[in-house]
Amino acid sequence: MPYLDHHESRLYYEVHGSGSPVVLLHGVGGNHASWFYQVAAWRAHFQVILVDARGFGKSTDAELAGRTEFTNDLLAILNALDLHRVSFVAQSMGAGTAIDFACRYPDRVASLLIADSLVGITLPESVASEMAKVQSATRDLSQAERVLGRTHLANSPAMTQLYLQIAGFNRYTFKTLVGVQPSYTPEQIAATGVRIGFLVGEEDVLFPAKIVSDVCKRFIGSELITLASAGHSAYFEAPDAFNTRVAGWLRSQKSQA
Questions:
Q1: I need a labelling partner for 3 at 20 to 30 A (CA). Which of 14, 77, 159, 228 fits?
Q2: For 193-246, what is each residue's pLDDT tens digit?
């Protein structure tokens, strides 16, 4: 089993395939097991690295540090794997770690695809007020209603159950997660020079497509990928479309280099 002992905790990770390294960072409802669609589709083209954040999946959190240590943990794993420059695909909570890493170590990030998230971004006041309304409106939704779109909930009850069962192996939920991470303004993130892209499901109730689109426009040259019939977990709900569009975006960085 690929574990790394880091301070008092054990961090779990997996490496699949070969090629340009792509690190997948999960959300609060996920862990390494959530990315099975992406591993199967991408391992022939990329080196796919899965990382369980501390307190999620098979990673422990002996220090009860939570988010405070996510970026340091990620750095330790990448150093152990001798990976000097990687791309990130970061969903929901994972975006906070990817953005923090990119701002601290920009030379080590080839590109960053932020999926169904604005975590880690200090939002302009007008956008922040809209997000506050969204958070109020979604506060009492069930976990399934929060993280999966209406199309998936209506058509895929078995996969909905699988999603919730995968999340059941995590120590933390969005209500119990501890620790803090810094956030950065769009200007600070853009100043890293890291190539940025956004993806959002049209049915995402936590980070609505319109708001994500408005934030994306603040990053000059960034691309927005919108997926129909998908909610907050587009990678899980619409994997074929997600895999095709994101792989295409990752490959296109070579032509822009």
A1: 159
A2: 999 999 999 999 999 999 999 999 999 999 999 999 999 999 999 999 999 999
Q: pTM (2 decimals)?
A: 0.96
- Say how many Å lie between the first and final Cα of the chain, rounded: 36
DSSP for 151-196 reads HHHHH-HHHHHHHHHHHTT-S--TTT-------B-HHHHHTT--EE
What is the rounded (10 degree) CA torsion for 211, 245, 32, 164? 60
Residue ranges of domains in the chain, CATH in brackets:
3-252 (3.40.50.1820)
Q: What is the largest CA-CA distance in the chain?
A: 47
The answer for residues whose C-beta is within 8 angstroms of residue 8's C-beta and 6 or more apart is 62, 63
CA distance 34 to 162: 9
**Closest-CA residue to 195 (of 256, 119, 123, 241):** 256
Give the strand order in the sheet containing 9-16.
Answer: 3-6, 9-16, 46-51, 20-25, 86-91, 109-115, 195-201, 223-227
Decide if 111 contacts 250 (C-beta within 8 A). yes
Percent of the chain residues past pLDDT 90, beyond the cut: 98
Residue with token string 């408005």: 214
